[in-house]
């Protein structure tokens, strides 16, 4: 790969280590410029949901040799409640972070990918696209929509050699997760390590993922090693989705 466009710092580092010039797109100048300087990439300060900003990033990739892969992740989410708790304004706003960002990014980058013979699109979603938790209606709905988008892309543009896949991570040690860890530690009157142990007790690997581990899955899907993989959702959740939830209570009882 010569010039992938990436919107997450861990993925930028992973792609840079694999060679080529990475175009890093993000809304905060400091983090984007730091990771670009660290990896020898190109920093583009902008919003992945803004067509003009994405076109600017595509132009930067073209100047660096051409765009051949796009890796983007959905934004954050909140425990907004169930369908009876969420007003229309909140529903219109929150899933937009997920779906509109992905649609804009894909629409503005796909022509450049096709120019070079197809390329690869990888979108980071969540295991919430496959199973919901209480009070996460808007978050789950937005992430689930991403699976349909990528399947549609795979079918529509597969004949042009474009591939489209989803990475669905479980809990990952990012800034988004830290407040939940802190709240659990406070409620339990314990420390962070104990809170993490409690939160990951139902995960076979008994831990959260590091961002670099999820980035490695995205790198694989964008690479030629995954040349026959498209329209797929790759789950990276430490085995959590393999657990029979009904047995957890029995395990606790002993």
Automatic annotation (TrEMBL):
Record's keyword terms, sorted: Oxidoreductase
InterPro entries for the chain: NAD(P)-bd_dom_sf, SDR_fam
Molecular function via GO: oxidoreductase activity
Family: Belongs to the short-chain dehydrogenases/reductases (SDR) family.
Protein name from the UniProt record: SDR family oxidoreductase
Organism (species): Geodermatophilus sabuli
